[in-house]
Structures are given as C-alpha cells and as structure tokens.
Amino acid sequence: MKEKIEALMAEINDLKCKKEQEIEEARVRLLGKKGEITRLFEEFRTVAPELKKEFGQKLNILKNAAAAKIEELKNAAEESADSKEASFDYTMPGDPMPLGSRHPVSIVREEIVDIFRKFGYDVAEGPEIEDDWHVFEALNFPPEHPAREMQDTFFVSESDNPVLLRTHTSSVQVRAMEKMPLPIRIVCPGRVFRNEAISARAHCIFHQVEGLYIDENVTFADMKQAILLFAREMFGPQTQIRMRPSYFPFTEPSAEIDVSCNICHGKGCNICKGTGWLEIMGCGMVDPNVLEASGIDSKKYSGFAFGMGVERIAMLKWQVKDLRNYFENDLRFLKEFETSI
Ligand code: DAH
To answer: Which residues line ligand 1 (CB under 6 A)?
Structure first.
C-alpha cells in the first residue's frame, strides 16, 4: 500500500493535462467511484490496526493533493480559455470605414468651374470679409443707392469705411480688375453672406460663381455665346437659353438668363412652375463706370460679367426642394451624392 500511495503521489505531482476533458478523465481515474484513490480507501479497511493511523493520514494527504491538483488544472484551463476570448485576432477582416462623400455644393461648384476652365477662364478668389469699396462703391453702388437695400448686409464694423461680409462674389471682379493685366478672363467661386431669414428658399450663407471677361471689342453676342455653351455643358446639349432684361448697378445693359427646363424640356412641369424655363443667373456688359473705377480705359476695353448661385444650380440639377438641406449635414441627405465622389 505504501508504494501505491507514493506512486500515485508522484503521478499527481506530475499531472499536466490542459484540456478540460483530460482533466475530467484524470479526476475520474483518481477520485471517481471506481478511481484508484477510492479503491485504496477500500483496501485501507483490511490494513492491520497498528498501521491504520499512518496509512489513514497518508491516504488523506493523497486525496487532498489529488483534489487540489485537479482544481488547479481546471482553473488554469478556464483562465486560458478566457484570455483566448479576450485576445484580438489580427487576421479577422476589419470593420469597413464609413466613407464620406463630396458635398453637392462642392460637386456643382467644381463642375461650373471646370466648364469655364475648358473655355480658357482662370480661377480667382478674394476675401469673404470685405470693405465697402469692393462690394459696393467700385461696382457703381454709391452710398445712398437703393440697390444696396437689395443685399441685406452683415456689417463687421460700421465706421466711415465699413468692414462687411461680402454679399456677392462680384467683389472679386473688382480686385481682379485692379491688379490683373488685361485681357482678364476669370471665374470666381466663393461663399457669400446676406442677412436673410432662413427658409426653404433663402439662407444667410450661400455660394456663387462670378464670371468676368474683359478685352478689346468684347460684345453682348460674345456673352450670349459663352453662356449658351455653359448652359449646354451643364444641363445637356438640347438646352436653350433666353434673356430677360434686368437691372444691376454694375452692368449695362443687364439681363437675367433662363434655361429651358431640363425636366419637362419646355412643356411645363412643377419644377419650372409650368413656364418651361428656369432662372439660372444674372449677367450684363460691365458698366463703363465700373471699368473706370478700377483704372481700366472704358473707351478701349469692354467686357461682360455674370453671376450664378451654386445652390440654385444644384437644386435644379437634383430637384432639391429645401435649401436648408445643404447646411444641415444630415448624412441621409449627403449619402444621396455618394456615387459622385
Ligand atoms: N452679384 C449679383 C447678385 O449677387 C449677381 C450678378 C448679376 C453678377 C449680374 C454679375 C452680373 O456679374 O453681371 O445678385
């Protein structure tokens, strides 16, 4: 019996199973109903009385050692299972990164600019915070001119020479005429600001693209042709334009341009309100006063200018009904332009 106890003790000390199933098998083999230690306890009944004390103690130590070892192996197995779960599998495919998309206003602004680039226009930009001279005075809006009222201005400071947020990108024309060599052929994309109540049809921030072409002998017919070509590039080769007389202080004569409705092709629908035409921009021949204010000889040079709202063109292109969608950054709206990256 002594040898058996010693042999089992050695076996228990060496026990190295890792899998839960193996540990369970070892437990059954040692401590189960028919296990080796259980069997030794049965054998113990036949041990001579004078040896009972010694073997009794040894058997109890053996049984406790076996139970402790099994417990220890079980804990180790559980721990390693836990740590396997917690550890990161670097070979797993990653979660897809949500991709952003171009904003519809950027898409259309770039499209407009690209069309004019193809026609040989350069891109010019100017400051959003401007002075009265570049936004109004040099564009033939004298101080008391009623047309200033049409553009509800945000003033940054109202001194003798007020600082303000530009109400239109026409201010960039003035900066270009003041410093660029002639001839000038530019488009000026940019953000503009007006003190308007925000609604589906008006916003206090929006974007414009301004155009300016100044050279010798530039005529109204050149302007008409440039705008017709632009309209066909932008809205399709069948597009027609029409001009309605209008008024801007900085152009004479002035016109407003309509394009034939690209939804109903002139038949009349709810987008064009049954007229078959959509208004897209203002334009005109640069007023000689404006040329002179920037130091250009109006006897030698003439030119045309035009200005359009980027949000308006985008609205026509995609039938967006509410201008506020452009500024709210609602992903459900922006996602509609996902394919346009
Ligand atoms: N600046 C005008 C506006 O904001 C748009 C405009 C009209 C620009 C006619 C022009 C132009 O250059 O010729 O309403």
So the answer is: 168, 170, 210, 248, 251, 282-284, 305-307
